[in-house]
């Protein structure tokens, strides 16, 4: 029984990483119908930004304590990572959107933006891995034979808090109402006086900021950074968002935890080399039975 509870906790931690990234995917898609394939690399950029921010705050120029450094690194990382996401939207996506480019070209542009982020990191910082500093003293609580660390609790609580916050923004605020309106009919929105570009910028700020938070938490949990760390986890988070029903915040959240649970369950029974094979096969079966995802609904296309 202890073994089961321990693996459930591990699944919740991994699912939290996937959910945080998947929420950014589904938020942008829900507003723009754009699959931002550069989002996984924004997660990577957020991890590197947190590394340099923490190093600066811990260094001789600031000399802050690790806990104070952590409290300042979280908002600074989210703000700076959000700036990266907004820059991509302004330079790469907005010109295509204003020219009425086909979605295929926008998707290709997103893929190229991700590659630019990866290889720019590789060119500037090199291929050597970086070790993330320890910002929070690791504490282990043994509850009924289950080892619970403060970092795991922090990651899980952060994912739940982000989900609740986004759910509130989308369903209870004027900005969320504008997001849903753009998703429904982006051509009529400017006629109603809603600043569509501003709402899209807010969407990228939220999605990229929370990707930066995921990068920080991932770096704290697994303190080894490398330029391609966002590629695989970004694709997995995208698949989780699709399985949950891309465009639906609740679906992205559930899909992330579902993927984490499947991966941990496979590893407990089979060798780790079978993890991705079994996980993606199960997710493929789910999509085969319900192509719109767990919480997705069929949508008609206006012609």
Automatic annotation (TrEMBL):
Keywords: Amino-acid transport, Cell inner membrane, Cell membrane, Membrane, Transmembrane, Transmembrane helix, Transport. The chain crosses the membrane at residues 12-35, 42-62, 68-92, 104-127, 147-170, 228-246, 253-271, 277-297. GO terms for cellular component: plasma membrane. The keyword DNA-binding does not apply. It is found in: Cell membrane. GO terms for molecular function: L-isoleucine transmembrane transporter activity; L-leucine transmembrane transporter activity; L-phenylalanine transmembrane transporter activity; L-valine transmembrane transporter activity. One of its GO terms (biological process) is L-isoleucine import across plasma membrane. InterPro entries: ABC_transp_permease (IPR001851), BCAA_transport_permease (IPR052157). It holds the Pfam family BPD_transp_2. The keyword Transmembrane applies. Its main location: membrane. It is a multi-pass membrane protein. Belongs to the binding-protein-dependent transport system permease family. LivHM subfamily. This is Branched-chain amino acid transport system permease protein. It comes from Malonomonas rubra DSM 5091.
């Amino acid at each position: 029984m202890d073994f089961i509870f321990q693996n459930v906790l591990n699944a919740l931690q991994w699912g939290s990483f996937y959910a945080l990234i998947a929420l950014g995917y589904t938020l942008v898609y829900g507003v723009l119908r754009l699959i931002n394939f550069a989002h996984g690399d924004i997660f990577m950029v957020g991890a590197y930004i947190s590394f340099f921010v923490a190093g600066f705050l811990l260094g001789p120029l600031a000399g802050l304590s690790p806990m104070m450094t952590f409290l300042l690194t979280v908002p600074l990382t989210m703000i700076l990572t959000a700036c990266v996401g907004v820059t991509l939207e302004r330079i790469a996506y907005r010109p295509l959107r204003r020219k009425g480019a086909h979605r295929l070209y926008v998707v290709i542009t997103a893929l190229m933006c991700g590659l630019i982020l990866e290889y720019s990191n590789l060119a500037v910082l090199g291929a050597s891995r970086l070790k993330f500093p320890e910002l929070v003293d690791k504490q282990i609580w043994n509850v009924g034979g289950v080892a619970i660390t403060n970092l795991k609790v922090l990651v899980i609580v952060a994912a739940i808090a982000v989900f609740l916050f986004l759910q509130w923004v989308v369903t209870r605020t004027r900005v969320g109402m504008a997001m849903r309106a753009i998703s429904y009919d982006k051509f009529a929105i400017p006629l109603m006086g809603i600043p569509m570009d501003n709402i899209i910028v807010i969407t990228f700020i939220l999605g990229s900021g929370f990707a930066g938070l995921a990068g920080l938490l991932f770096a704290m949990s697994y303190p080894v950074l490398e330029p391609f760390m966002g590629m695989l986890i970004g694709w997995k988070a995208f698949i989780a968002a699709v399985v949950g029903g891309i465009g639906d915040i609740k679906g992205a959240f559930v899909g992330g935890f579902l993927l984490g649970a499947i991966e941990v369950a496979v590893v407990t029974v089979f060798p780790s080399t079978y993890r991705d094979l079994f996980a993606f096969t199960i997710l493929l079966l789910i999509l085969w039975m319900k192509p719109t995802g767990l919480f997705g609904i069929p949508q008609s296309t206006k012609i």
